[in-house]
Write a sequence for this structure.
C-alpha cells in the first residue's frame, strides 16, 4: 500500500517559515511511522532531519506530534495511523531543524530536581541495602521514564509558562522522593514547591495520554503535591 | 596535501577543549569509567563524556534480562561456577585470567550498583532478587542456577539511568551530540593517544578534545547486519577509528546471533522469557531444544540455540515451512508476564498485535553482539599488537573492546557485567595515567584530515546514496557471514564487501547544511560499518574451525590443536585484505573439554 505522509519542514539555513511537504511512501500495515520517515530520508530527500536510535520505544529519541498527538515514531504503526499521516515537531520548544527540537531547557529542568540517589551511608555488612518489594513498588511506575519529553511538550501549562519545571522533571523527582533509600527528600520537595514547580499542574492529563511508557504522571504529580502539603504546619 | 589546504580555506580552526580525561560513548562502560575517574581524581578534575546521542539514549538502556553475579540470594551459588560457565560458554577461547577478574568482581560490582541507586527487584527479605539465564549453571554444569540480578525486564535501562544520574551528581562534563571521527595520535605510530577529533552535530563545527587519557566505549556494530537487535546508531565508530589508525581488531569473526529476535524486526525478546520458563517450538509443535541440549534445553548458550533454530528451519520444520519458529510463554501466566516481563509483553502487543498470554510469538535469530573488538588488558589498556604491547593514553571498554572475557560466544547477562567491571577498572587505570602524564598538544594533522574528509563529502555532487550501499552490506553480511558460514559464502561476502567499499568512495550527501546534518552523519557511519565488515569477513575466512558463534559448515569441528588463539586483524592498505596475526588464549584453570549443554 501507499501512505501519504505530510511533514512540517523547517530548515533555518534555507527557509523563512515552516511549511508542509507531502511524500508518497510505500508501506506495510506493520511498518512504524519511523520506517516511513527513513524511507523519505534514505530514498527521497536526505535533508529530512529527526532524532532516532533504538527504534523500539526504549531510548526516547523520536517523540513527535503525529496525527495530532505526541507519540514515539517507532511505536506507532501504519495500521493504526492510517493512510494519511501528519508529522510535526512536538510543541513548546524551539524547532532547530524539521522534527528536531532544542532540548537544552528540557535537560536543564531534569537536572534541577536532583535526579539521583542521595545516600552515602553504606550497610555495615558490605551487602546491598535492604528494600522490600512493597517499598520498591512506590516508585516502580516513575522509574520507567525514558526522558523522551512527550509529556512535557504535550502540557498546556508548559506551553503557557516555559519556566514550569514540567511533568518529566516531576516524574524524575518522584522516582527519588518515594525511594526508601534516599536521603534528600526534603530538598527535592522544596524544589517541587517552587512557584514553577508542581503547583503549575492543572490536571489536564495530556501528559498521561502522551506517555509512551504508560506512566500515570498526573497521579505522580499529585503524590508529590500531597507530600509537600503534609509537611505544611 | 591538496585536501589539507582546501580544508584550511573553508573551515575555521577547530575549537579546542582541554580536559584531563575523555570518555567517548555514554553507555554503561563510559559512564562508569567517568564516575570512577571523578571519584579518583577529585571534584576539580575535568572529565568529559562525548556522545553522539544524549546519554540516556545509549543502547545499554535496551538491555533487558539482568546482570549475573553469584550473590547466592535465592539459592546456593559460587563465583567460580560463574567463571566456569563463562569459559565454557565462550567455547574455551576466553582468556581465563580476565574472566576470573570479571566473575570475582561481579559480586562487589552489583552491590555497588545497588548502593548507587539501582532499583533491583527484591526478594521478600529485601535482598536483590535473582533468576535463571542461558548457560548459567550450578556446580560446573549440573543444571540451571538463579544468578541474574534484575530490575523487571529493564535492567539495562536502570543501569544506564543510575550511572548517568550519579555522573550528573558528581559534575562529569557532558558533550552531547558530538560525533567522534578520529583519535589524536601521531601518524604511523602506536600512540600516545592525546585526544579525539569530533563533529559537533548542532553546528557542523569540528572540535578538538585534548586529554591525558582517552577511553573508547563506543559500543557495537550490529548495523552491518540486516536483522539486528542493535540501534540505528550502532555503527562501530570507535572500532573502525582504531582500525584505521593501524591498531588491531581482535576476534572479529565471533559475532553473536541471539536466538529470540522478533521475526523480521530483529528487536530482542529477552532470554529472561526462557529463564522464567518459556520455550521454543517448531512448526510441528515440538520442543526441539530437548534434542539439541538435553540438560539445559532452552537455556543452552545462545550460539547453540540459534544454530538449533537454523537446523529446524533447514529441515523444513519452521512455522509453515518458513524461516522462523515460535516462542511459547502462554503458560507463564499474567502475573509473571506483567511483573517480571512487562516490556517484552508490550513489544509483542505493539509490534505483532499478539497477546503472549494466549498466542505463540514468531522469533528468529538476530544479530546481537560483537565478542570481538579493540583488544585490551583487564584494565582497559589497548594492545598495539598480538605481543601485548600497550598504546599509551588509549583505553577501550564495553562492547567495542575485546578483553577477552566472552571468547567465541558471550553468555547472557555477561555484557552488562563486562561494561560495569571493565568500565570501572578502565576509569581507575586512567586516573593513574592522568596523574602521571603532562597535558597534550593538539594533533593539527588529524584535525585537518577530519575537516578535509567532511568538506570532500559535502562538496561531492554525484555519486551513490549511503542508504543503498548500507542496505546491500546488511543483506550480504546477514546471508553470508551469519549463523552458518563456509569458505564459499565468505569468499562471496569478501568480494561483495570489497565492491561496496569501492562504491562508497563516491558517496553523495544531499544535505549541504551545517546544523544537524544527519545525512552527513550516516555517510560517515557507513564508512565505519564497512571497515568493521572487512575485518569480520577476513578473520572469518581464515579461521578454519567451528567454535562458539563461528560455525563453519566446511569445518564443523572445534580444532584446539591449531585454533585455541585470538585473531588480530590489522589494516594493511586500502583495498587489500587485512594482515592477520594470532595470540594464544590464556588457559589457567579449565582445560578445554567437549562442549555440551
Amino acid at each position: 500500500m501507499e501512505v501519504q505522509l505530510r511533514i512540517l519542514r523547517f530548515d533555518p539555513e534555507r527557509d523563512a517559515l515552516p511549511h508542509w511537504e507531502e511524500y508518497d511512501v510505500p508501506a506495510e500495515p506493520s511498518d512504524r511511522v519511523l520506517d516511513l520517515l527513513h524511507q523519505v530520508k534514505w530514498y527521497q530527500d536526505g535533508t529530512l532531519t529527526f532524532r532516532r536510535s533504538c527504534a523500539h520505544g526504549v531510548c526516547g529519541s523520536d517523540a513527535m506530534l503525529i496525527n495530532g498527538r505526541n507519540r514515539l515514531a517507532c511505536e506507532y504503526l501504519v495500521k493504526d495511523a492510517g493512510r494519511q499521516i501528519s508529522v510535526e515537531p512536538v510543541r513548546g520548544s524551539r524547532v532547530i531543524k524539521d522534527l528536531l527540537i532544542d532540548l537544552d531547557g528540557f535537560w536543564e529542568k531534569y537536572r534541577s530536581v536532583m535526579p539521583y540517589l542521595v545516600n552515602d551511608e553504606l550497610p555495615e555488612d558490605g551487602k546491598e541495602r535492604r528494600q522490600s518489594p512493597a517499598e520498591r513498588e512506590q516508585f516502580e511506575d516513575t522509574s520507567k521514564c525514558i526522558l523522551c519529553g512527550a509529556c512535557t511538550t504535550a502540557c498546556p501549562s508548559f506551553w503557557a509558562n516555559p519556566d514550569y519545571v514540567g511533568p518529566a522533571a516531576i516524574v524524575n523527582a518522584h522516582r527519588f522522593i518515594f525511594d526508601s533509600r534516599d536521603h534528600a527528600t526534603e530538598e527535592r520537595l522544596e524544589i517541587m514547591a517552587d512557584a514553577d514547580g508542581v503547583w503549575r499542574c492543572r490536571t489536564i492529563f495530556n501528559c498521561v495520554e502522551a506517555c509512551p511508557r504508560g506512566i500515570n504522571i498526573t497521579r505522580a504529580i499529585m503524590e508529590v503535591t500531597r507530600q509537600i502539603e503534609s509537611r505544611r504546619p | 596535501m591538496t585536501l589539507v589546504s582546501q580544508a584550511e580555506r573553508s573551515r575555521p580552526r577547530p575549537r579546542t577543549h582541554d580536559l584531563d580525561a575523555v570518555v567517548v560513548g555514554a553507555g554503561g562502560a563510559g559512564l562508569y569509567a567517568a564516575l570512577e575517574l571523578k571519584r579518583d581524581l577529585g571534584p576539580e578534575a575535568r572529565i568529559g563524556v562525548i556522545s553522539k546521542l544524549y546519554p540516556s539514549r545509549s543502547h545499554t538502556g535496551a538491555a533487558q534480562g539482568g546482570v549475573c553475579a553469584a550473590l547466592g540470594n535465592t539459592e546456593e551459588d559460587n563465583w567460580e561456577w560463574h567463571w566456569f560457565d563463562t569459559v565454557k560458554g565462550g567455547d574455551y577461547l576466553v582468556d581465563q585470567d580476565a574472566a576470573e577478574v570479571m566473575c570475582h568482581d561481579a559480586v562487589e560490582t552489583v552491590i555497588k550498583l545497588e548502593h548507587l541507586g539501582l532499583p533491583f527487584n527484591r526478594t521478600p527479605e529485601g535482598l536483590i532478587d535473582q533468576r535463571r539465564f542461558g548457560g548459567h549453571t550450578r556446580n560446573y554444569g549440573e543444571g540451571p542456577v538463579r544468578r541474574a540480578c534484575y530490575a523487571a525486564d529493564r535492567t539495562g535501562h536502570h543501569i544506564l539511568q543510575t550511572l548517568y544520574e550519579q555522573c550528573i551528581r558528581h559534575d562529569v562534563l557532558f558533550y552531547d551530540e558530538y560525533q567522534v571521527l578520529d583519535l589524536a595520535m601521531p601518524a604511523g605510530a602506536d600512540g600516545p593517544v592525546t585526544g579525539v577529533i569530533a563533529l559537533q552535530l548542532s553546528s557542523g563545527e569540528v572540535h578538538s578534545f585534548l586529554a591525558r587519557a582517552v577511553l573508547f566505549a563506543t559500543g557495537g556494530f550490529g548495523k552491518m547486519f540486516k536483522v539486528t537487535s542493535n540501534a540505528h546508531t550502532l555503527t562501530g565508530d570507535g572500532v573502525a577509528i582504531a582500525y584505521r589508525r593501524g591498531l588491531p581488531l581482535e576476534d572479529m569473526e565471533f559475532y553473536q546471533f541471539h536466538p529470540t529476535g522478533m521475526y523480521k524486526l530483529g528487536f530482542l525478546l529477552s532470554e529472561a522469557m526462557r529463564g522464567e520458563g518459556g520455550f521454543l517450538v517448531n512448526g510441528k509443535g515440538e520442543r526441539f531444544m530437548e534434542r539439541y541440549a538435553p540438560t539445559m534445553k532452552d537455556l543452552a548458550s545462545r550460539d547453540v540455540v540459534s544454530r538449533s533454530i537454523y537446523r529446524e528451519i533447514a529441515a523444513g520444520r519452521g512455522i509453515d515451512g518458513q524461516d522462523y519458529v515460535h516462542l511459547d510463554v502462554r503458560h507463564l501466566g499474567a502475573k509473571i508476564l506483567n511483573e517480571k516481563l512487562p516490556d517484552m509483553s508490550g513489544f509483542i502487543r505493539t509490534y505483532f498485535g499478539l497477546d503472549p498470554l494466549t498466542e505463540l510469538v514468531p522469533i528468529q535469530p538476530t544479530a546481537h553482539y560483537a565478542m570481538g573488538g579493540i583488544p585490551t588488558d583487564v584494565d582497559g589498556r589497548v594492545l598495539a599488537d598480538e605481543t601485548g604491547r600497550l598504546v599509551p593514553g588509549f583505553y577501550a571498554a564495553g562492547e567495542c573492546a575485546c578483553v577477552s572475557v566472552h571468547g567465541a560466544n558471550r553468555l547472557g547477562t555477561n555484557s552488562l557485567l563486562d561494561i560495569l567491571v571493565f568500565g570501572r577498572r578502565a576509569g581507575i587505570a586512567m586516573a593513574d595515567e592522568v596523574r602521571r602524564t603532562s597535558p597534550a598538544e593538539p594533533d593539527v594533522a588529524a584535525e585537518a584530515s577530519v575537516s578535509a574528509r567532511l568538506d570532500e563529502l559535502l562538496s561531492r555532487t554525484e555519486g551513490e546514496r549511503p542508504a543503498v550501499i548500507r542496505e546491500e552490506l546488511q543483506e550480504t553480511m546477514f546471508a553470508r557471514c551469519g549463523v552458518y558460514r563456509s569458505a564459499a559464502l565468505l569468499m562471496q561476502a569478501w568480494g561483495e564487501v570489497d565492491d561496496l567499499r569501492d562504491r562508497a568512495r563516491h558517496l553523495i550527501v544531499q544535505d549541504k547544511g551545517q546544523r544537524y546534518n544527519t545525512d552527513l552523519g550516516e555517510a560517515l557511519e557507513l564508512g565505519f560499518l564497512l571497515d568493521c565488515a572487512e575485518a569480520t569477513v577476513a578473520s572469518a575466512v581464515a579461521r578454519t574451525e567451528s567454535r562458539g558463534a563461528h560455525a563453519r559448515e566446511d569445518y564443523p569441528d572445534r580444532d584446539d590443536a591449531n585454533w585455541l588463539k585470538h585473531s588480530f586483524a590489522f589494516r594493511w592498505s586500502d583495498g587489500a585484505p587485512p594482515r592477520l596475526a594470532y595470540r594464544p588464549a590464556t588457559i589457567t584453570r579449565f582445560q578445554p573439554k567437549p562442549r555440551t549443554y
Q: What stands out?
A: The first helix of chain B runs from residue 2 to 10. Chain B is about 35% helix and 20% strand. Chain B has two domains: 1-6+16-254+371-556+567-597, 259-365.
